[in-house]
Amino acid sequence: MNRLRTIRDLANVVNLSTPLGLGVAVARGGRLRRRDGLWIAEDVRLPGINASAMTVGSVVLILGRSLDEAEARNPTLIAHEDEHAWQWAACLGLPFIPLYFAAVAWSMVRCGDRASANPFERQAGLRIGGYPENAKQPLRQGLARLFGR
Prior knowledge:
Low-confidence stretches: none
Helix content: 40-55%
Mean pLDDT: 95
């Protein structure tokens, strides 16, 4: 398993997603440390982001708090974010960004939230990520809400 993680982490360096994550972490005041093959950036300040953490490459950005505080709220947070690091590698890095936002849009249309129908969040584990699983709504209803009708 450690060999596979090493390959994943190397892939995320080569595909530039981990350097991007480290750059965001440093630029936004994060304190860096390593854990289980991941870079953890604590107390990162990203205005407008409504999440307890997000992953860029093999870097987990813990937003506005320490890792201990985040894990007190959700003990399985790092396991969820570790899955996202695999997704960055599978998407060859930066293409993950538009793919993820498209998945968020689909989930908003289908379920009214950013995670319930998002294949990236579902594969990473909704419950271990701290997300509820909302029911699907009629497509017409979701599109009407999206376009303000």
